[in-house]
Amino acid sequence: MFNVDEAAEEIRQKPYHLFRSNCLTKSIWLVKECRKQNIDAKLVWCALGLVKIKLPILGWVTTSVFTHFWVEANGRRIETSRPVGSSGFLGFIPANIRPVITIKF
Question: How far is CA 58 from CA 74, 88, 94, in A?
Fold first, then answer.
């Protein structure tokens, strides 16, 4: 039986690569797998999101603007880019991105 959380965890564990295996490509894969199993899933593009980052060398923490993708399945936001709680570029955690403008596909 297909489990959305298990599938998401499997894809999160795949190494992140900016051009081949990023938040967009990983989210598209999960949406396709969910839809094959007749689970309502949408790709969500956060065209404008705010997140706290740590600037290298200076060590300052500031708020920055980012774009990001995730999956919405069964009414929940499911991050696929990195393992839950792990930080990405500039020390931000993808789940902490606060969406300002989102578009669902």
Answer: 41, 18, 22
pLDDT digits (tens, 9 = 90+) for 31-63: 999 999 999 999 999 999 999 998 888 878 999
Q: Which residue has the tokens 């060398």?
A: 57
* pTM, entire model: 0.89
What element of type H or E holds 34? helix 23-36
Closest CA to 42 of 76, 8, 12: 76
Structurally, how many domains does the chain consist of? 1
DSSP 16: P
Phi, psi angles (nearest 5°) of residue 12: -60, -35
Exposed/middle/buried for residue 89 (C-beta within 10 Å: 0-12, 13-18, 19+): exposed
